[in-house]
Amino acid sequence: FGSRADDWIPARRNQCGNQHSMFSQRLVVLASLVSIVWSNKPDRKLIVRNNSGRRVEMNWLEPYTRKAHLMTDPDILHGAEFNMDSFVSHEFELKEVPSKKTNQCKVPNQCRSATFAVNNNEKQVIEINRDFELKHVDHKTVARDHATDLLDDCKLAAVESLNANMQASSVIEDLSECMGDMVQSEFTDVAEEIAFQSQVRKKMAEQYETYTCADFELPSSVAEVNETWHDSRTRSSHLVQVMLDRPASKVHLIENFISDAQCDAMEEAANGRLQRAVVADGAGGHDFSEHRRAMQAGIHVQWDKEKSGDHIAAISRKVYDYVNHVTGLNIDEKGQEDLMSIQYFGKGLEDNSPDQYMPHCDGECTGDPHKHGTRVATIVMYCTVPEKGGATNFRNSGIHVVPKRGQAVFFSYMDPETNLMDTGFTEHSGCPVVFGEKKIVTQWVRHGVTEEVPWYRYNSLGLLMPSFD
User: Fold this and answer.
1) Counting C-beta atoms within 10 Å of the first and last residue's C-beta, which end of the chain has fewer, N or C?
2) pLDDT of 204 over the 80 cut
3) Which ranges form a coiled coil (predicted)?
């Protein structure tokens, strides 16, 4: 099946019960789903609350046959909750269970039932009352009800003003001011909550960085979803592990992106040209820093040799093809930065200043609008991987990548629809290289550069510098 059996079962029970009978029923459900790709449906958490005054059982309904499969054993008692995971569009039946004393339901010879379907929203709560009526709420309905309550308060004040014979223009002005104050208050509360959660996330990320870099046995993070990219130019297909998929923050791990011959060509071009790597100095220039210890060499792409099969031109072309495949920005090679050969060397566990790259952002990661001509995406291609160390971390997103030769990590940090930048989810680092060598090829991709106004016309603050031609 390509996944755990539990992933094919529509709901995973959180209550204890008769495991043997439930296992048999789950096998029936599993067999009915072989031809349907349920594992691709979004997972949703549900809470079912029984306030009906009776015992209730819950059944999953097969989508075509409507055959019922019991999901609760024991039953859900009055006043109890049942927690489970399910999938969008799955339908369930809540059914009254006869009394153990009389073997009758509340209405003789008629056991009441009600059905509900899992929707696409979060925080879904299904409550059944004494009339066996369902109330299905989620994060959107709660927000809508809250907004309605706020509006009703303002409307009530407006009605009282009208009854007091105030002028209509004054009533409208007061109503507008009331709604404005309430909206401002709500936005302030939301902003404070987001800021607090961001601080917590960043503090946790610092610990994540420390522990993941120190654990040499830790595997790469599990992808959210796997896709296939068909490169029409080279007629090749590549497995893509989507690790993060947000409008302004995407992280993909691509298999077999760079060939051995292409790696060799980059290493040969870098021989004799390696220099100590630099970082932005915060004043528009660059400087050396202990935050980045590596050797690097910029390799100019000779595009006039592309048609003759030049390996270095082929690398860069594939980068732009993939970036455009994901972002739709239609970026070309004109005015872009050179390919960069970057090399790290391990010196053992006792090295107090190992080759590494501390957490940083390749572009702006403040959530501000994109500055014309600055970076929007990066692809890091792995040619030589170390024996220990050298993993790539996206600590704010909880993503850990243990590189393999030929793989590439793509990450973009601008929303193509709004042009707003990432808010730190693509901040990344290169863990210390302890044993062996790490040799990568990096292409930073910019949006807005041209042949007439190339990348080097912009300083490290993203400001366009005057031309002295």
Assistant:
1) C
2) no
3) none
Cβ-in-10-Å burial (0-12, 13-18, 19+) of 437 comes to: middle
Beta strands in 257-313, from DSSP E residues, in sequence order: 275-276, 279-280, 286-287, 292-293, 295-299
Percent of the chain with pLDDT over 90: 61
At 208-230, the pLDDT tens digits run 777 888 889 999 999 999 999 99
Burial string for 281-307 (b: 16+ CB within 10 Å, else e) reads eeeeeeeeeeebbbbbbebebeeeeee
Give the total residue count for the chain: 469
Lowest mean pLDDT among 25-34, 35-44, 405-414: 25-34
Cα separation, 300 vs 297, whole angstroms: 10
Measured between its terminal Cα atoms, the distance across the chain in Å is: 63
Q: What is the CATH number of domain 5-137?
A: 2.60.40
Higher pLDDT, 39 or 354: 354
Cα radius of gyration (the chain): 29
With 80 as the cut, is the pLDDT of residue 302 above it?
Answer: yes
Structure tokens given for 250:
């995407």
Of 427 and 194, the structure prediction assigns the larger pLDDT to 427
Average pLDDT over residues 133-160: 84
pLDDT band at 55, cuts 50/70/90?
A: very high
The DSSP code for 191 is H
Residue from 305, 298, 273, 260 nearest 443 by CA: 298
pLDDT for position 11: 40
- Domain boundaries of the chain, sorted by first residue: 5-137, 141-195, 215-457
| Dihedral (Cα; 362, 368, 369, 372), 10-degree rounding | -40
Question: Using an 8 Å Cβ cutoff, are 94 and 58 in contact?
Answer: yes
At 71 the three-state DSSP class reads: coil
Q: Burial of 436 by CB count in 10 Å (0-12 exposed, 13-18 middle, 19+ buried)?
A: middle
CA distance 314 to 326: 19
CATH topology (fold) of 215-457: Jelly Rolls (2.60.120)
Helical segments of 271-349, H only: 311-327
